[in-house]
Amino acid sequence: MDDNKHWRKNLWILLFGTFLTGIAFSEVIPFQPLYISELGDFSKSQLSLLSGIVYASSFIVVIFTSAMWGRFADRHGRKRMVLQTSFGSAVTLFLMAFCTNVWELLILKCLQGFFDGVIPNSIALVATSTPRNKTGYTSGFLVGPIFGGLLVRLLSIRVSFMVTGLLLFSFFLLTYFFVEEHFKPDPAKLKEKKESFVKIIKRFPNTHFVVWILIISIALQIMNNSINPLITLYVKELMNNSGNVSVVSGIVAAMPGIGMVLVSPWFGRLGDRYGTNKILTLGFILAILFIFPQGFAPSVLFFGVFRFLTGVSNAAIFPSVQTLLAKGTPSESTGMAFSLNQGAQAVGICIGSLMGSIISSIWDYNVVFYVSALVVLVTFILVKIKVPELRDSKAE
To answer: 40 in helix, strand or coil?
Structure first.
């Protein structure tokens, strides 16, 4: 009974902590371009390019450090990882408030990537299948941009970085004093040798299927993150550089998350009834239809509605990818498959943010949406041609 009591206490503390973390990270992301513009005299194209580079920098670091931290957690436990990542993230985000140029911000963003992993390690620490875990951190990511927009409006971008750092530090303290973990390292894990990406992939019985699932994940992250570093700049342009840009940007940035949470259960039930493959196909079609019109948005309201609809398409695609990956790999390999998928998502985020910033610096923000829709369309066609498992048969 005592262990069960510890489990419940850990669950609620980490649930609250992931909610705080969701607020902390998402409240500052949409406003980084505004902060960068304060750190120098940049042209529109320079600001777009720098916004993408700064946004992508932390994810580039994640690609190279995630496996290292995974092995560290196997040796020292998840609580140690939650403490390290929450404290390191708190310090780096707090220090961002004192940047005097964009290069200092870039270095701190790389450090933020080095300490990435607060939420996944928190979820791993509770080690439970309860859906309440996901509800907690999703809620944080939903309210984060709105909360951040209000902070920027009421205070300043620099103060919002300080508040963000303090939120994460409060999570560090909660974990340190109240979360319990009785960790014993697995001797087999300690003896495991580092393997290359190719060797890991080849160990799966259905290598072709897994590779294409990873390609889908990369394409979806390209679609979603090609505009994320630029949303505030695009909203500012749609508002003719006037009005409460920070608040409106925060609301618009939250729209995809709100749309995704509202309809995800419905798509889940449809997937059970008609097959996950059909829901994935529907999600691809909706994504193409909803992304393309954002390039010619006549107003912020139009843009916000279609950002919400993008969340609806995400609700069909992302859970379907996770479900298909789980069903298409042996149970003993599911953990590794999901780790590879996280790495693929980081690659997609990097490609998408850099692609969006380069395109917008050469042409304009609207072209980013057209190219993103094209990426999804090409991926959809290739998947239908190359992957028989992802055609019309019901995924069971």
So the answer is: coil
Return the closest-CA partner of residue 352 out of 364, 340, 344, 341: 344
Distance CA 345, CA 134 (A): 18
**In this structure, is the dihedral angle defined by the CA atoms of residues 64, 25, 173 and 128, taken in order, positive or negative?**
negative
Are 121 and 78 spatial neighbours (Cβ–Cβ below 8 Å)? yes
CB environment 325-340: b (16+ within 10 A), e (fewer): beebbeeeeeebbeeb
Q: Where do we find the tokens 């003993």?
A: 332
The residue to which tokens 């008609």 are assigned: 274
| Dihedral in degrees, nearest 10, Cα atoms 247, 223, 350, 379 | 170
CA 376 to the chain's CA centroid: 18
Name the nearest CA neighbour of 356 among 53, 116, 28: 53
- Tokens encoding 148: 């951040």
How far is it, in rounded angstroms, from Cα 180 to Cα 11? 10
Each residue's pLDDT tens digit, 308-346:
999 889 888 887 887 777 776 666 566 566 667 777 888
73 neighbors 185 (Cβ within 8 angstroms): no
Q: What is the DSSP letter of 117?
A: -
Instruction: Give every residue of the chain whose pLDDT is below 70, as ranges.
Output: 1-8, 22-28, 66-67, 70-71, 73-74, 119-156, 182-205, 328-339, 390-396
Rounded to two decimals, what is the model's pTM? 0.72
Cα dihedral 121, 182, 170, 138 sign: positive
Helix/strand/coil percent split, the chain, to 5: 85, 0, 15
Cα four-point dihedral sign 312, 337, 213, 49: positive
CA 236 to the chain's CA centroid: 23
Helices 300-327 and 276-291: crossing angle in degrees, nearest 10, is 160
- Residues with Cβ < 8 Å from 246, sequence gap 6 or more? 31, 34, 148, 149, 152, 153, 232
